[in-house]
Structure formats: C-alpha cells, structure tokens
Amino acid sequence: MSTENTLEHKTTKADFDGKQEYTITVYAENRIGLLNRIAIIFSKRKINIESLNTSPSEIDGIHRFNIVIQESYEVVRKLARQIEKQIEVLKVYFNTNDEIIWQELALYKVSTDEIAEKVTVERLLRQYGASAVVIRKDYTVFAVTGHREETDALVKALEPYELIEFVRSARVAIIKDSAGFHEKLKEFEAFEPGEELVENEFLDKGEKIFTM
Amino acid sequence: METAQETMQQTETKAETSKTLFKGTGSQVLLNGLIEEGVTTIFGYPGGAIMPIYDALYDYAGKLEHILVRHEQGGIHAAQGFARASGKVGVCFATSGPGATNLVTGLADAQIDSTPLVCITGQVFAHLLGTDAFQETDVINITTPVTKWNYQVTDAKEIQEVLAKAFYIAKSGRPGPVLIDITKNAQLQLEEFPEYVKCNHIRSYRPKPKVRVEYIEQAAELINAAKKPFVLFGQGVILGKAEKEFKAFIEKTGIPSAWTIMGESAIPTAHPLNVGMLGMHGNYGPNVLTNEADVIIAIGMRFDDRVTGRLDKYAKQAKIVHLDIDPAEIDKNVKAEVGVWGDCKETLPLLTNLVNENKHEDWLAKFRQYNQQEIDQVITPELYPAGDEMTMGEVLRNINEICGGEAVIVTDVGQHQMVACRYATFNNSRSNITSGGLGTMGFGLPAAIGAKYGAPEKTVIAIIGDGGFQMTPQELGTIMQFGAAVKILILNNRFLGMVRQWQQLFHDKRYSFVNITSPDFVALAKSYYIEAAKVDERANLRAALETMINHEGSYLLEVMVGRENNVFPMVPQGMSVSEIRLK
C-alpha cells in the first residue's frame, strides 16, 4: 500500500490539464432511473456526453455504462467521484484511449444499383473491412466496426455513391488492465470492508488504470 | 376505486408467504415500518393520492404524531428542523402532483446541508402512470438531482425493503434526503407481510470506509511539524456526533479552530480555542489568517465558495489536511496535501493519538489581536450601538444574556442570519439551525416548529427577517393548531436587507425592488391566537425579549431595527479572504 504523501495520480501524459477523450466505465445495479441520475451529473455541469452505451457486464445483474466525454483529467476525476457517490453505482473507472480497447459499430445503407455498377464501391468496402448485412434489389446495408476515424472515413468515401442512410452506435470499451469485476464484487458484497478496500484506491498513486 | 379493489382481490389470492406476521395494506405496513425505525413525529399534508396512508394513520393515534402543516414546503422544512435539532431522521408526507413539487425546495436544502430526511409522497395508481392523470407528476425525475436516493413503489411487497433502505441511506455516511413515491394501488394493496428488517448493508453503497492509518500518520506528521496550524470545522463534526472527539483533538494540539455556519455550536462559543466564524461575513482573524496558516486541517467541511472567497488566492501557502466522509469532497474545491477519508468519529481519535501536545500561544495571540480590532471597529458598535436606532446585534446580545447560550436558534436567510450566526452564543451542539448551503428564505419559521418537536425541552427561538417571514407565514396556523412553543423574533428593517447591502456596496446604491412593506405582524399573529408584541425603541427591548422567552407558549415579537445597517466584516464576492473589509 502506498504511503506517499499525495492524492495526485502521477501521469506521464503531457496534456494532463488539457482536454482529451476519456472513456468512463461505470459498474452499477440495473435500476430504473439510474441512467437519469448519471446523466444529470454531466448536464448539471454543462458537459456534453459524446457517446453513451449501457449494456450487461461480465456479471449477471450488474450493468455497465460506457460514457465518452472530452474533458481534462481534473474534471473527469471529479465527475467520476460524483458518479460513484450515487447509491446504486458500484464502481467507476476512467481511461484515456490508449488504456482501452474500443469499438463503434456503423451501418451504411447504399443503393444496390450503385454498387453493382461501380466496382470502386466494392473495393472501397473491402478496403474498410465492411460486411454486407442485407442485400436487396433496391439497397444494401453494410456494417463496419472500428474507431471513429475509420467509420467516418467510409462515410466520406461513400458520399459520391448515394449513401441513403448512416448510423453509428455508442462506443463500447474494454479496459486493458482490468481483471474484470468478479473479485471487486466480492468485496462489495462483504459486510465489512476489508483492509484492501477498493474505495480507497483513488488515494493510491497511479496504477495503470485510473480508478477512484 | 374499482380498479383498486380489483387489484386488492388479485393480490389477496396470491399471498402465500410462509413466515408472515402481519396481514394488512401497504399503507399499514408503511406506518408499522416507520414505528420500527423509531419515528414518532410526521410533518405532512394529505391529498388524493396519499389518502390510503392517511386513512391508515387514523388508527395510529398515540403511536405516530402527525403535525398538519399549512404547506408542504413548511412540512419538509419542519422535518429538517426536527432532524437538525434531534439528530434523528426527519419524516414528511405529501400527496402527488403539487404536494410533491412543493417539497423540492426543502429537498434541495436538505441535500446541500446533508440533512437526513425520509419523504413519502403519494402517486396516482400505477396503471395511470404516464397518462397525465389528475395530480400526476414525475416526482422521481423532478427530485433526482436533489435527493440522495429516491424510489417509486408500485407494489406493496416492496414497501418494507424500500423503507428500510431509505432510512439506512438517509442517516448513514454523509446524510441526505430520500424520497419514496408510492402509487395509490400499492398503498391499498392487501398482503401478508413478513417481519420488518432494518437495512444495514447495500452492496453498491459504502457509507464510510475502513480508515487507512497511513493517511492519519501523514496528517499527524504535518500537524506536528506545523508552526501555524489552523482548524476549520463544519457540520461533519455534528453529523458524525464527534463533538467530544473533536474537542479532544483541538485541546491536545492547542490549534485555533474556526467554524463554518453549519458547524457552529459543535463546540461551545466560549471555548478558548474557538476563534470564530469563517467566510464572507465571518470573523476578521480567521479569514485573514487563513492566508497565513502553514497547515490547515479541514474537518467535515466542504470549502464552499462563501467560505473560501476567491479560490486561487485561498490558503495557497498552506498544506491542507482534509478529513471528510464523502470522498467526492476531497480535492473538489481545494487540493488536499493529505485526504483522510472517513467518519471523523473514527478518524479524529486516531489522529489525536498521534499528534503532540502543544500550545500555539503566539499564533493564538494573533487571532486575539485581529479579534480586538474587530471588537473595536465592528462588534462593539453593533452590540452596543451609540445611535438611537436598534441594531440586530444588540437584540442578539440581549438574547445571549437572557438565555445564556442554552437556546436553540433557528434563523431564516439574510442579514439577520449572518448577525445571528456571528453573535449568538451556544453551549450545546445542534443549537444553531440555519439554511446554510441553499440559503432558503422562508426556512426559519417551519424549521423552528420542527426543531421544537425535535428538542422539546429547549427554548427555540426563530430569528427571521421581515422579508423571509412573508415567505412562509402560513405556518403560524400550524403553531396555532398544535401549539409548538416557538419564539418568533422578527427583525424588521423594512428592507430585503442583504440584497440592499449589496446594492449599496456594489451596485451604486441603486435600490432595485428591495423596499418591502409588511403587514401588521402583531395583528397577524393575534389572528392566529398567538401572543405578540412590537418594540420600536431600545428602552423596551430587554423587557419585551424577556416576556417573549419566558412566555409559556408561542410568541411573536417584532423588533424594528435600523433600516440601512450593514453586516460587516465582509469578504466581497470575488475577493480573497485576506481582503476582508471591516467597513
């Protein structure tokens, strides 16, 4: 356990104070109204949520939120503590992009005629790793999973060829250094907090994952 | 009603629990649960969607006392006053729709001042949710930002567990308000219920951590090396019931200690290490010396902007040790060198063990020097005014002389509040009840009613301005009907004084809509059969105050004070605490 005299996480990041993309991972009970409780923590501070995903987690009955925002480390840390303070929230992590594996899914609807006529389109799709989800006489739906820049790039590339509809999902992310939530949950379910109490992690010096 | 009966019949056939102790309605089991939680007093107001609960309440006379307020805002402020005076959870009832929305100000007030409340609201039948039914409003979403937790019950079988959770959440950790919204069908639903079990663990909620000794050690090291240590304490000491532990800590270390208005009365006013009040209208020494201290030990306080003034010029030279039960407060406004997360009832004794005995005589003498300047320039003229006009300060001085620090002082918001917090003397904890964080005008009268139920053996004095009194005067009706012996002291300067003061000092004396007229308060009180008097000259003040305080029942006294007196010292907004003005 760290005995160093600081609350500050040491970070090697150059833009410690500058805004950057953070992915917040929230483990929470699956309860009606909790999404609103979390969302207003952002809107109260006039912070825009760029992407929000709720899904089941590795543990039955525990929900996992992924929230993406552009903010400075200091702001994200305070937000994370406010979120973790909510009764039904078990744990909050926040990570920069290099600390997570993340994906977004995009769907593209294009005219089948256009694709059939123009070989370049097919090449484009192959180049972007797209897969055909539906092929009909009148239109075809392609799917791409990847980072924002990748899905965006295909939108640009398809623009000349009658892109009828486009939609992109929220980000889903896995924390590289996380060992999952199973062990943590045991600590939470224990009646008395143990010596290695997780909630005090934020007082520790920086591990590879930021946690509060 | 037909639907309700249908629901009842349906659920009746379903009941089959083995260990059943009680067969009854959701309303009955709710009231039984309140009794299990030790509730004796409820402040409330009935209405359509909460009628089944009120119907059940009819049979609980002698077990549960219900105070019928005159407005739901009055009900929740009374519950707050009750909680603050007694240290117990305050409970209030309101119906759906307007009843529930009228609770919002009180919830926000309780949330920001960490007051434990459980509020029960009625709601339309579950099958009507979302249909814009009569008196339907989305109470859960409206109150989400201003509650520690809230929950909508649509099935009576949830009531016991939700109520137990509500009380646990409201009073544990950093306390706060909880709201339970119960649909009418759940109130009516007939069920067989198991024994009521109190809640003491929620897996997603850690009210307090196991204290980590290394942070205590680091804190002790800083404190032991400090030449000019300074303690700032807030309501956390009172909420944590850690007054003794706090006193032991400061007495061992000899550290001068100043309070936020929420922390006032945690130690007696006369304690030699009590150096006074922090913040915008706080004392001179504590504000100036904040920027001279080398180590600041903040205990159960949250560095509100009214305490810190300009943040980038606040205590930059000092190393900060911050003890708080809420980890979100550590490093929120002021960066801590050492953050000690925990219940100060546990952390303070650990810290006291590790710190050296000390007497910071020279450092304390500095506080006394500043205090002397403040006495000469501000306090004496306020408490012993030379002019004919009465000051708020001299009224407070007289109260102190009569009550000797034993009264519970409840204030409203504004100049009188600052004067009362500055000058009232207290011997006992939980004696200063004020709307600190939210600054709710209209808080005073209903909160004083609640405080009287929370501390019936105490003299409760509500000090209220002429403006604030006119926000919730309807609660005189509650006093009339239920006889709470509250002493109401209106300090009338015929202005919205604090706003006027700002307009004078910062807006070029453009007195924009601060000139407020008042009804005949004495006649108003008498129309509610409450004894009342008015004083407009000093010669009668002392006797009038004595009459009020010695009067057996409730009493209203209106004191006409100087129109354009200002509260000083003052840290103007946007200025540093060390730039505090004495005039």
Automatic annotation (TrEMBL), chain A:
Q: Which residues form the ACT domain?
A: 23-97
List, alphabetically, the InterPro entries matched: Acetalactate_synth_ssu, Acetolactate_synth/TF_NikR_C, Acetolactate_synth_ssu_C, ACT-like_dom_sf, ACT_dom, AHAS_ACT, AHAS_small-like_ACT
Q: Which UniProt keywords apply?
A: Amino-acid biosynthesis, Branched-chain amino acid biosynthesis
EC primary class:
transferase
Highest taxon of source: Bacteria
- EC code(s) of this entry: 2.2.1.6
Q: Name one GO molecular function term.
A: acetolactate synthase regulator activity
User: Where is it found, in Gene Ontology cellular component terms?
Assistant: cytosol
Q: In which pathway does it act?
A: Amino-acid biosynthesis; L-isoleucine biosynthesis; L-isoleucine from 2-oxobutanoate: step 1/4; Amino-acid biosynthesis; L-valine biosynthesis; L-valine from pyruvate: step 1/4
Which reactions appear under catalytic activity for this entry?
2 pyruvate + H(+) = (2S)-2-acetolactate + CO2
Q: Name one GO biological process term.
A: isoleucine biosynthetic process
What does the annotation say about its assembly with partners?
Dimer of large and small chains.
Q: Which PANTHER family does the record cross-reference, listed alphabetically?
A: ACETOLACTATE SYNTHASE SMALL SUBUNIT, ACETOLACTATE SYNTHASE SMALL SUBUNIT 1, CHLOROPLASTIC
Give the matching NCBIfam families.
acolac_sm
Q: Name the family.
A: Belongs to the acetolactate synthase small subunit family.
- Could you tell me what this protein is called? acetolactate synthase
Q: In which organism is this protein found?
A: Pedobacter suwonensis
From TrEMBL, chain B:
Q: What is this protein called?
A: Acetolactate synthase
Q: List the molecular function annotations (GO) for this entry.
A: acetolactate synthase activity; flavin adenine dinucleotide binding; magnesium ion binding; thiamine pyrophosphate binding
Thiamine pyrophosphate enzyme N-terminal TPP-binding domain location is 25-140
One term under GO cellular component: acetolactate synthase complex
**What is the enzyme's main class?**
transferase
GO terms under biological process: isoleucine biosynthetic process; L-valine biosynthetic process
> Organism's domain of life?
Bacteria
Keyword flag Metal-binding: yes
Q: Where is the Thiamine pyrophosphate enzyme TPP-binding domain?
A: 412-559
Instruction: Give the co-factor note.
Output: Binds 1 Mg(2+) ion per subunit. Binds 1 thiamine pyrophosphate per subunit.
Question: Could you say which protein family the record assigns here?
Answer: Belongs to the TPP enzyme family.
